[in-house]
Amino acid sequence: DVTHYIETGMALDEEAYERATSVYLVDRTIPMLPERLSNHICSLRPDEEKLCYSAVFELNAKAEVLDSWFGRTIICSNRRFNYEEVQTIIEAGEGEYQNEILAMNALAQKLRDKRFKNGAINFESVEVKFKLDENAKPIGVYVKEHKESNQLIEEFMLLANKSVAEFVGKQRENNKHKTFVYRIHDEPSPDKLNSFAEFVAKLGYKIQTGSKTKLAKSFNQLFQDISGKGEETMIETIAIRTMSKAIYSTHNIGHYGLGFTYYTHFTSPIRRYPDMMVHRLLTHYLNHQNSVDQEAYEAKCKHASEMEKKAAEAERMSVKYKQAEYLFDRIGKEFDGVISGVSKWGVFVELNESKCEGMVSMRTMDDDFYYLDEENYRVIGRRYGKEYKLGDKVRIRVHQVDLMKKRMDFIFV
Description:
The chain is α+β, with helices and mostly antiparallel strands. It contains 11 helices and 18 strands. β15 and β16 form a beta hairpin. The longest helix has 35 residues, at 294-328.
């Protein structure tokens, strides 16, 4: 319960509002709140009593919500698990607190199935993680897997976020909705959607844009079909760009990607300022107070959305920099990869193991004169007809790395 410690108008609150979010770079975190709060006072540590803001649910075996309650509580946690420990218990079916964990996992999977049946889209972009030495130098790169233990936490967080938004969003005062902070996601523009459908059709995949349900279904099918293939990263990136960006707003239009009519961010007040606003507003409305000034809150939402965008960009650049740094020590070495994109300048290759993406310049492809066949995502040699196309498996040598530009140049072996 961060807002118990940080009251509106305090210097800490103003600084948290300015930052609006914690930023997670590869080798460090730039927290929204001081470490004493984020890692100690406001962190659920085992066997310590902690002030919390809770969303409590009673569910039946079909994962239907029978009853819910929101309010301030004290929690004394018995045990702190990490995702790997919980995953082991789910897979083995035994271990500490197995009954609770297995029951929660069964409910989470039912909530997840229901969500996809109702038109949620399963965007799962690849998360690259690094093993760093004591000087924060990358010595290994791996891809973080999204397993059932992650889904367990995710589904209950979504349930809490959605239910809090419904609880406030459905309240009315003089026939007007009460002002609240929503997490909204607009539907994609038809033009962008049609271009995307045309793009994947050329690669042999199909998107049905007829209705929201058909679209969600075919998107989820597409993500299954491309899993592990060369074009996976490119299609996922373009799919995400096709979609609108989720933002904060007091004007609720629902969350398209999740398929929810009401949605907010309630579950992470330590690292996101909008969640703190939601906690304060929830307290305000639980005490039956009047609606707050919408314009003032809309301005705060806009600021939070802008800062979130900046943080995401910094996080992306940080990953790209560490990938370049990782390959900087491996110049001259050979790796296996897949062709992830083509352009008139050259062929982009994503390495299998580290997910680093670099370019093989047309200038270095000197066994022929290559030209770009943009329509079919490939480059073809004029004289011998050799082609390199999206998804092809290739072997490359790391040629040079520019750390400042975060650019990696490869040569085909």
